[in-house]
Amino acid sequence: MRIVSFKTDEFAGIKSRSYEFKDGLNVLYGENEAGKSTLIDAIFYTIFKSSRLHKTRDRDFINNYFPKQSDTIDAQVILKKEDLYFKIMRSWGAEANSMLEFSDGRTYRDEEMIKRNLKELMGFGAATFKYIFFSSQRDLSESLYTILKEDNLKGEVRNFFSKAVMELDGVSIDELELIIDEKIRELSSNWDIVSNRPKNNRGINNPYKISVGKILSSYYDKERLIRDMAITREKEDRFEKAGDRLKKLDILMHKLRDDKEKMDQLSDDIRKRDNLERDLKEYLKEEEKLKEVVEKWPEYKIRIDKNKKELEVLNSELEKAKNDLDSISKLEKKRELERIVEDYDKLRLKADNIIKEIQFLKGKDRQKLSYLEKIKNDIELNRSKLNSGNLISRIKIINKDFNIKLENALGEIEFGDQEIELGSYVKLNIEDVLEFEVKNKEVDIETIKENLRKDENYLSREYERLGINSLSDLKEQVELNEKYKSDLNAIESQMS
After folding, report:
1. What's the predicted TM-score (pTM) here?
2. Are 389 and 440 spatial neighbours (Cβ–Cβ below 8 Å)?
3. How far is 148 from 306, CA to CA, in rounded Å?
4. Is the separation of the CB atoms in 491 and 354 below 8 Å?
5. Where are the alpha helices (DSSP H) in 168-213?
6. Contact, 474 vs 368, CB < 8 A?
7. Reduced to 3 states, what is the DSSP secondary structure of residue 198?
8. Could you please report the per-residue DSSP string of 216-274?
9. What is the pLDDT of residues 120-162, one digit of tens each?
C-alpha cells in the first residue's frame, strides 16, 4: 500500500495545496505550526472519517479542523495497492459527500459501501492506523523513552501491544521489531557501539569493503578527511617555505635589475661616444673633399658648361626619337583595335545566332523535363494500378444473337475463345439482358481513371505545344539548350 498524493482546497490551516509522494521514504519538514501534523491528520480522516458529522460526537473534529468563517472543508487522497489505484474524496460540513473511485472504473458514493471496500483494501481497521501508523511523535516519545530504559517493562509492553494490535486488526510487533533491527543493521553494520570504533579496529588503512553501515561509512569519510587535511597541511608548509625562498630570490632579482640598469646606462654613454667619434671622422673627410672642390672650381665650371650643351643636344635627339616611337605605337594600337573589333563582330554574330536558337528552345528546360517525366511516371503507375487485379477470364459466346460488350478500366476490349487479362475492373454488358461489373475494392477505379485521363491529356497537349513526339526528343533539346547557354556564357566572357 502506498499513498500517491493528497489535495485539498481547505482543511484547517491548509488552503489550496497538493502533495505528491514518491516510492520509499517521504519526509515532511518545516517550522513549528507549519501544518505537518495537520497534513497527516487530513490524510487519516480522508481515509476513515465519514462525511456525515454529529455535532456532539464530532465536536473535537469540527473545532480542530474547521476554519473560522467556513462551513465546509474537503480533501482528496489517491492510494495504490499493487497495480490498483483508488481515490477517496470527502467533503465535510454544509456540502457533505464522499466518493471512492477505482482505476478500473468502479465508483461508490454510499458511506457503508465505501467503508466496506476500504476495510478490505487497507487490511486493518481505523484504530490500528490511528494508534500505530498515524500516531503523533509528541504523544509517544516520552512513553517510548521510559520503555527503552526499563528492561523489565519491555516484555509487558510487547504483550500489551500484541493484544492491543490483535484487537485493532492484527498488526504484529514482531514485524515492527524486524524493521527496527534492519534499520539498526543498516546504521551500525561492522561498528563496535561499546568501544565506539570499527569492529576489530579496522580503520581507514584496512577498511571493510562490504557490510559497511552508515556510521562506519561516515567514520571512514571523517578519517579520510583527517588524512587529507594532514597532507594538505604538509603541502601548505612546503608552499610557505617555497614562498620564503621566492621572496629572497625576488629581492636578489630586483638588485640585479638595478645593477643591470646602471650598466645599461654606462653602455649607452660608451656607444654614444663611439658614434660621435665616427661622425667626427666622416665630417673631417667631407671637409677635405670640399676644400679640394673649392680649389678646382674654375676647371669644374668649364666642364659643367660643356656638359650642359652636350645635354641639350641629346635632349633634342631624345625628343625626336620619342615622337617617332609614339607614331609607331599608335599605328600598332590601331591595328590591334581593328583586329579586336573584327573578332568582336564575329563573336557578336555567333552570339546572336545562339540567342535565336535559345529563344526557339525557350521553355524546354530541366524543370519542364522533370515535370513531364513525373506525369509520365504517374500515367504508368495508374495504368499498372488499373491492371493490378490479376483477373483472368475466358468467355465463349454460345448464342450470337445477343450484343455482348466487355470493358476493363482502360476501355472496351476484344475477346474470343482465349484467356483475357482484365486487371482491377471488368464490366460485361449483354444488351437489354444483363450488365455485370467486378471491381477491386482496394483500388479507387474512378479516381485513378480520372487522374489517368487528365495526365494523358496534359501530356498530349504539352507534346503538341513543344513540338515533340516523346520525352527523348525533349531531353535532346534540353541538352542542346544547355549547350547553347554554356557557349553563350563563354562568348560573353570573351567579349568582356
Report:
1. 0.34
2. yes
3. 138
4. yes
5. 173-188
6. yes
7. strand
8. HHHHHHHHHHHHHHHHHHHHHHHHHHHHHHHHHHHHHHHHHHHHHHHHHHHHHHHHHHH
9. 888 777 777 776 667 665 455 444 444 444 455 445 445 545 5
